[in-house]
Amino acid sequence: MVQFIVRRLLVLPVIVLLVTLILFFLLYQLPPERRAEVYLPSMRPTTSAEERERIIANTIEHYRLDEPFATQYVTWVRNLLAGEWGYSPSWDEPVLQGLLRRAPASAELAIAATIPSIALAITLGSVAARYRGRSQDQVIQTAAFVGWAFPSFVFGLMLMNVLYAWLRWFPPGRLSVWASPIVAGEGFRSYTGMVTVDALLNGDLNIFWDASRHLVLPAVTLAVAIWSLLTRVMRSSLLDTLGQDYITTARAKGVTERDVVNVHARRNAILPMISMGGVIVSLLITGVVIVEVLFSYQGLGAAAISAIMNADIPAVVGFVLFTSLVTVMSSLVADVMYAFVDPRVRLF
Fold it and tell me: What per-residue confidence (pLDDT) applies to 43?
């Protein structure tokens, strides 16, 4: 197992190198004066043209933005490792600081969407496989197909119109007006940046329930596509597993169909779901951008859209790099989990 993890870790720098090369190649197409603005905060309106040119010239010299591609790339990577990801004028703060400050909100939303999706997909995928061709299977397959094909923003708007505009159950945003000052105040200690978790650690159930209510609509909207995909994968995988010889032997020994599915077949059927860890993270990142804007949820996705609308190159590049690293790391974790469940994978 250790050798398998080491092999995967040795591949990781190569993938990260390719990602950074592609990103820097795109950034390199800009003139040095434009790239110099990546490292500069917004200048004062009173800054003269001469002073502006001098500041940009000093920045080009400091970051070696007029050097050959290889030299600039090495300097850029060194700056990334040192935490210099540039300055975002639309966020009005350094890019890395803005990413790290907003990441817990998006992580909280992703976790709230993913855990129920996986549990529901395993359960309903197993039911669909067990009752293949019957009404239960047809209903689940239809729901999964509709959930996968239906645009998430349309589904989110429908949920908002019914559950918020009409019934007033689950409001948008991240917190209510009365709760935001409490969370931002000195009496509320932030441990993780996830409001629901921090509320429990602070022993404030009112904040916890308020944050949970605000999570419902974006989490459900984000979860639909993930649940739909995993349910179909689980059903297909379980059907393949139920056709194996050891399953036939278990049935011949008198094992009940429930135990055949739940005890003997399900563990092997879950393996394809584990291997899709990177795909799920990619779906989450794409979905978070749409869902956060739709429900006014202040996280990485909403900040990325703000950066795109303002042509904020440092923030956009930082967001792409950050999410790429998260996707690569999640794929590594999925490979390790797969190897833990199926020892045969460790041989490759």
Answer: 47
Tell me which residue has tokens 């779901």. 273
Q: How far apart are CA 329 and CA 8, in angstroms?
A: 10
Judge if 108 and 141 occupy the same domain. Answer: yes
Residues 319 and 248 reside in one and the same domain: yes
Q: Are 329 and 273 in contact (CB under 8 A)?
A: no
Helix 2-28 to helix 313-341 angle (10° resolution) is: 160
Q: Is residue 157 part of a domain?
A: yes
Q: Which residues contact 106 (CB under 8 A, 6 or more apart)?
A: 288, 292, 299, 300, 301
Residue 3 placed within a domain: no
Three-state secondary-structure class, residue 64:
coil
Does residue 314 contact residue 85 with C-beta atoms inside 8 Å? Answer: yes
Is 112 found in the same domain as 71? no
Confidence class for position 220, pLDDT limits 50, 70, 90: very high
Helix (H) or strand (E) holding 62: helix 49-62
67 lies in which domain range? 31-84
pLDDT digits (tens, 9 = 90+) for 53-97: 787 888 787 777 878 888 888 888 888 888 888 888 888 888 889
Residue 320 confidence (pLDDT) above 70? yes
Distance CA 110, CA 195 (A): 13
